[in-house]
Amino acid sequence: MFQGDPSAGSTYHGTFVPDPYRALEATESARTRVFLNAQQRATEAFLARSPHRDAIRRRLAELWRRRTMSPPLRAGNQWIHMLEDGTRNQAQVVRSDRPCGDGALLLDPTTFAADGSAAVTSLSCSRDGALLALAVARKGSDWREIRVVEVASGTLRDDVVRFVKFSSPEWLADGSGFFYLRYPEPAEGKALHAVNQAPRYCLHRLGTQQQDDVTVWADPDHPERAADGRVSDDGKQLVLEVSSGTDSRNRVALVDLVEGKPSAPRPLVDELRASYVFLGNDGPTLYFLTGDGAPRGRVVALDSSKPGPAITRVPESTDTLAAARLVADRLVLVYLHDAYHVVKTCMLDGSAVRTVALPEVGSVGALTGA
């Protein structure tokens, strides 16, 4: 048994909320380890007595052997995705000449941990398809380590970027480096339960040390704020979405990239009114999916070269606009209709709407395209 502490807890708006087992959040402490080991022994003893254990194991093994893969990423004339066949602890990174092909092994997560405790959680290709940045999580932690693989050879480069959370690598247009969000290095023994604040959005140049990375955005006066970014289709700007905690609303800032060198951020949407998700650009015109003035979502255009009101391109409809993406000269739109997804496309001005036929009724997990 784990003896709780009745005095442990927090006060919210004048009301004390008890949390007697908060000490269990210290996952590396001796008390927690003793408790977990005891729970493991009790579980094993219970399962050992069950006459159905073998049948349950066989059925679970059948379910785990189900083949799954992530949405494919274009890498030059190849496609890259994560493939799980149910026989390994983690999904492998494979490359193929077809979007849904099994392909050849590009990287096995056991490269980072032989015991299978490391997982690749996200992939990001450079625009020429030569390099793949991947985020690695160890033992289920939220902390990520970014590594870079040469797609043609499968060689793992020496670049190592640590202390990353809630961010995927975003490449410069020329593939010379990538942006990422990092937090301060946690104190010894505090990595898994310390409060993470005051992050910085940084630029890492390939072949350099992380300590030399350039800070592109930081807001030390508001340590709860964080930023995520995407480089515009023409490579001339970095569009930053700045949010606070779990608030779905965000601000938008622009960073000019002259010969890959970032300028100081300048505001584009500085009022915290709604969510603004960057979809892509057509020259200086930036497209966003937003709930601003449209609870079910709309697509708007903003001019990055001069301030002005947002212009509606795809108006709010009776269905919720759940996701969108700009691909080539089209907007791809995912609507939630009667509890399932419907995919539509239209021109950048919102005209020529057509519905994309899907194999069956279901949900769309991600949009990729080039």
Notes on the structure:
The protein has 370 residues and is mainly beta. The chain has helices spanning 30-48, 53-64; strands at residues 9-12, 15-18, 68-69, 73-75, 78-84, 92-96, 104-107, 118-125, 131-138, 144-150, 161-164, 170-171, 177-182, 200-205, 214-218, 225-231, 237-244, 250-258, 261-262, 266-269, 276-282, 285-290, 298-303, 311-314, 320-327, 330-337, 340-347, 354-356. β6 (92-96) and β7 form a beta hairpin. The strands form seven sheets. Strands 3, 4, 5, 6 and 7 form a five-stranded antiparallel β-sheet that branches. Strands 16, 17, 18, 19 and 20 form a five-stranded antiparallel β-sheet that branches. A four-stranded antiparallel β-sheet has the order 8-9-10-11, with no helix packed on it. The radius of gyration is 23 Å and the shape is globular. It is built from two helices and 28 strands. The model has no long low-confidence stretch (mean pLDDT 91). Among the domains are: 9-49, no CATH class; 183-189 and 197-272, no CATH class; 280-365, no CATH class.
Shape annotation:
globular
> Poorly predicted ranges (pLDDT <50, ≥5 residues)?
none
Helix residue percentage: under 10%
Total number of helices: 2
Radius of gyration: 23 Å
Mean pLDDT: 91
**Main pleated-sheet profile:** 5 strands, antiparallel
Gap between N and C termini = 56 Å
Give the class from helix and strand content and strand pairing: mainly beta
Q: H/E series, N to C?
A: EEHHEEEEEEEEEEEEEEEEEEEEEEEEEE
Task: Count the beta strands.
Answer: 28
